[in-house]
Write a structure and sequence with these properties.
About 35% of the residues lie in helices and about 15% in strands. It has about 200 residues and is an alpha/beta fold. It has a six-stranded mixed β-sheet with strand order 3-2-1-4-5-6, sandwiched between helices. The longest helix has 23 residues, at about 170-195. It is globular, with a radius of gyration of 16 Å.
Length: about 200
């Protein structure tokens, strides 16, 4: 089984070790590097500062499960070749913008890939969504308000003109959402393995 993780921040950094145990192959995608502030609410340690998050996570996962095969892409999800996505059995997303979710949703829909998305809002709200392959896509749920939000990102750092304030999600909330994502995945795998 090939598991893809897109976004290795507050949620993605905690979901990776939970689901990696069931994979023969892992694909990690993230455009960021580890910063000092990431060590306070993500799984990274101070010796990883300056490393691409995908490299830091790959090193951490290899130290726990040396036999797992890991491919890393230090890039925006839209810059990763479509063939990489086509090899995934399932995709996990911990993304910082609705635009990134829309992009990943379009890719998953076109390729018929199931994906599990986790997100946070404020300091105490978490959300997990499962998208199975089928006739509908993530954008089918969009309202006019969603389209107005497409340019907003929720980074861990300071605001800029194209960004809004961070979600202020704690590591504890990220861990909770990651645990729920892993639980949804385990249920999906168990159901998929049941005879028809």
């Amino acid at each position: 089984m090939t598991i893809m993780l897109v976004g290795l921040g507050v949620i993605g950094s905690f979901v990776a070790p939970l689901v990696a145990r069931t994979a023969q192959n892992l694909v990690l995608i993230d455009r960021d590097t580890v910063e000092d502030r990431n060590c306070r609410n993500q799984i990274y340690t101070s010796d990883m500062i300056g490393m691409p998050k995908v490299a830091a996570m790959a090193a951490k996962l290899r130290s726990i499960w040396p036999a797992v095969s890991i491919d890393t892409y230090h890039a925006d999800l839209a810059d990763v070749p479509m063939g990489v996505y086509s090899d995934a059995s399932i995709v996990f997303a911990g993304l910082d913008s609705l635009l990134a979710r829309q992009s990943l949703g379009e890719i998953a829909y076109r390729l018929g890939k199931p994906w599990i998305d986790g997100g946070t809002a404020d300091t105490s709200l978490g959300r997990v969504s499962f998208y199975a392959p089928g006739p509908a896509c993530v954008e089918c749920c969009f309202t006019a308000a969603h389209y107005r939000q497409l340019a907003m990102e929720y980074p861990c750092g300071a605001s800029t003109a194209a960004r809004v304030s961070p979600t202020a999600a704690s590591g504890a909330l990220g861990t909770t959402v990651a645990g729920l994502m892993a639980s949804v995945y385990e249920q999906y795998v168990a159901t998929a393995d049941e005879p028809a």
